Amino acid sequence: MEQKRIAITMGDPAGIGPEVVVKALSNQEIYEKCIPVVIGDYEALQDAIRFSGLDLSLSEIHAPVEAEGTYGVVEFIDLKYLKAGSWVYKENSALCGEAAFQYVVYAIRLAMEGKVDAVITAPISKDSINMAGHHYSGHTEIFAEYTGTKDFAMLLASENLRVIHVTTHCALIEACRLIRKERVLTVIKLAELGCRMLGIDNPRIGVAGLNPHCSEDGLFGTEETSEIIPAVQEAKKLGINVEGPVPPDTVFVKCRAGLYDIVVAMYHDQGHIPLKLNAFQWDEEKKQYQSVRGINCTIGLPVIRVSVDHGTAFGKAGEGRANADSMLDAIETGLRMIENRGKK
User: Fold this and answer.
1) How far is CA 14 from the centre of its chain?
2) Alpha helices, H only, the chain
C-alpha cells in the first residue's frame, strides 16, 4: 500500500515551530509510516537543524508527489518568505505572520486538492498574523474559512483525556452568550465524530455544565436548564451515548478515570486547563518541561488537520531547547485519523 503523504506547516519562524518540526522528523519511525512534506522556508529550517545539532539534510521539492520519504532528508516546499537574518527569534513581526499564514493556506489547498492526506500544523502567533493583516484568532478559524466549513469545533487530546469546545477564542462574557442549544448539540455530534476518527467506537460523551455545580437548579444561572439539558436530550434521541450536564469540577476527573471518552467543554479555558495539566509535565530539578504531550485538531472539516497543543514559546525559540513530543503526537494522530476516515 502506498504510504500516506502529510503536509507539515512550519509555524511562526520566530517561535519553536521550525525546531519541533525538524526534531520530530529526526525520528526514523515517522518515515516507516508516512511521507512528510514540510511547507515553510529553507532559511528557518536550516537554522533549526543547525542550533538543534541534528544530522539532517534538506531537499527542496515543488509538489508532494515528488517526495520520496527518505529518513535523514527533510523534504520541503520553500515559499521563500525569509532571507538569512530577516527575522528575529522571540519577536512578533508582520514578516513572520505573513509567512506563517501563507504556509497554512498553501497546505490547506494541497489537502483540498487531494495532494496530501492530512495537514499537521506547528504553532503560529496570533499577534504576528494580525500584524500581517490576517485577522483570525487561530488555526481553527483559518481552516474553517478556507475550506468553507460552517460547523466545526476544536478537539484536544492527550493520553487519557479528550476535550472538545463549544466556544473557543472569544471573550468569556461572549462565550456565555454563545451557549445555545443548537451549538451545544452540534458539538456533541462533532464529539462523536471526532472520537470515531480517533478510533473509538460508540464513544461515551460527558457534557460539562457552564456554571458552578451546573447552576444548582437555577441558583447560579439558567444556561443548563434552558440550553444544555435540551441539547443533551436531543442528542440522546439521535442515539448518541451522552450524559450531562456534569459539574465542571468533576467531569474531567471522570473522563480521566475512564467513565467518558470525551468531554464537551463550554469555553476555551474550561477545556484547555485540565488538558494541559494532564499532558504537560515539569521537571523541577532541570527547570524545564520533561514532557509536552497532547494534540489539537479541528473536527468537521473536509480535510484532516492536527496541531501541536502548545504555542510558539518565544521564550526558548532559537535555542534548541524545545520539546517535540506534541509534534510527534500530532503526526501519529493525523495518521490514525486517515486510517479511520469514513468509518461508521
Assistant:
1) 19
2) 17-24, 28-33, 42-52, 94-112, 126-131, 139-147, 172-178, 181-197, 223, 229-237, 248-256, 268-279, 325-340
Check if the beta carbon of residue 296 is closer than 8 Å to that of residue 156. Answer: yes
Instruction: For 90-111, write each residue's pLDDT tens digit.
Output: 999 999 999 999 999 999 999 9
Cα–Cα dist 232/213, whole Å: 17
pLDDT of residue 122: 97
pLDDT tens, position by position, 195-211: 999 999 999 999 999 99
Residue 166 CA to residue 267 CA, distance in Å, equals 6
Q: How many CB atoms lie within 10 A of CB 58?
A: 15
Q: Across the chain, how many H-helices and E-strands are there?
A: 13, 14
Give the alpha-carbon dihedral of 312, 96, 40, 275, to 10 degrees.
20
DSSP state of 121: E
